[in-house]
Structure formats: structure tokens, C-alpha cells
Amino acid sequence: MRAYEIFMILKPDLTDEVIAETKEKLQKIIESFGGEFVKEVEGWGKRRLAYGIEDYLEGIYVLWYFNGQPETVDELDRVIKISDRILRHIIIRKDE
Q: Cα–Cα distance between 66 and 49 in angstroms, integer?
């Protein structure tokens, strides 16, 4: 398995329940594709964006570390792209 990190910016007007549901859904995708969720970096929270995205000036920043296969990343990317809750994301493979 390879080590990855994913950085996401969620819409700032989401409720805590919707945020938790979104995170849980993505963690289940990681696990169902043979991956392993490692940890979430705390303390990012809601911050001002450098520029507006879809008329939003703030976003909820989320940084995760996980282990998985390229198929895991492909599925995460696919699901995030069709989600209306996430403004931006990037998935990076960490160097060995």
C-alpha cells in the first residue's frame, strides 16, 4: 500500500451532521477499496479563502492521511468530483 494525503475544502454553510456524514462516507470508500484511514489533522476548521470559489469566501479545511492503492484514489476522486459539498480537493501520494 502507498501513503497518501488528501486536502479538501468543504462548503462553509454545511451543518456539523452533514460534515460528519461526508467524512464518514469518504472513509468508508477508503476502507472498501482496501485502504486504511490513518488520521485527520485537527485544527484547520473554517478559514477565509484566498479567492472566492462558487461565491464562497470561506471554507472548511480538512487534511487526511491514508494508505491505499491507486484504485482507492481513483474512486475517491470520482466521488468527490460529483459531490456538491466539496469545493476543492487534491490527493497527493507521499514519497517513500
A: 25
What average pLDDT does the chain have?
93
Nine-digit cell string for 94: 507521499
CA dist 90 and 70 (Å) reads: 14
* C-alpha cell, 79: 466521488
Burial of 57 (0-12, 13-18, 19+ CB in 10 A): exposed
Tell whether the model's pLDDT for residue 96 goes beyond 90.
Answer: no
What's the pTM value of the predicted model, to 2 decimals?
A: 0.87
Helix (H, G, I), strand (E, B) or coil at 64: strand
Phi/psi at 26 (5° precision): -70, -35
What residue spans of 33-91 are helical by DSSP H? 70-82
- CA distances from residue 71 to 2, 38, 89, 92, 94 in whole angstroms, order as listed: 11, 17, 17, 14, 16
